[in-house]
Amino acid sequence: MEGSRPATTEDVPRIADLAELARHELTPMKGGALWAAREAVAPPFEDTYAALLDRDDALVVVGTVDDTVIGFGVATVEPLRTGHTLGVITDLFVEPDARAVGVGEAMAEALVAFCVAQGCVGIDALALPGHRAAKNFFEESGFTARALVMHRRLDGGGGEPG
């Protein structure tokens, strides 16, 4: 049976493994190199995800099939200048061979419920421009695009991804 639950410290090594899989999958995609250098959690993954478990303004969940962890998700709460808060789904990943069975949906529902309980005015989630499956997943979960980030790669950028 698929589902999701809040992550525990015992889940952190598995979450770190899944974060590495996500980075490996997304970095070669359009926009992925810059995502890895800017938005993605930086290694060491175990330290970052363990620290998130202790935060009141964050939720880390794991997705399971028959109690086996096959995915993870993270939402954080970001204060806005208006005094309101915005939920931000920073991570949502399911092993490729375990997709389309409902684990991602279960984790997304838990993250959305957390943001609602925190009084957020909305929730942002990032999908790379070439990752049609992620875009479709979020749209099917009730998300719509609110902004497009345009980027121009510059040659001679000192070896930085662009």
- CA radius of gyration is 16 Å
Overall pLDDT level: 92
CATH architectural category: 3-Layer(aba) Sandwich
H/E series: EHHHEEEHEH
Strand content: 15-25%
The CATH topology turns out to be: Aminopeptidase
Largest sheet: 5 strands, mixed
- Which regions contain 5 or more consecutive residues with pLDDT less than 50? none
CATH class categorisation: Alpha Beta
In oligomeric terms, what are we looking at?
single chain
The strand count comes to 5
Descriptive tags:
162 residues; alpha+beta; Aminopeptidase; 5-stranded mixed sheet; 5 strands; globular
Topology (SSEs and partners):
Blueprint: E1 2-6, H1 12-26, H2 32-38, H3 45-53, E2 58-65, E3 68-79, E4 85-94, H4 103-117, E5 123-125, H5 132-140
Parallel strand pairs: 4-5
Antiparallel strand pairs: 1-2, 2-3, 3-4
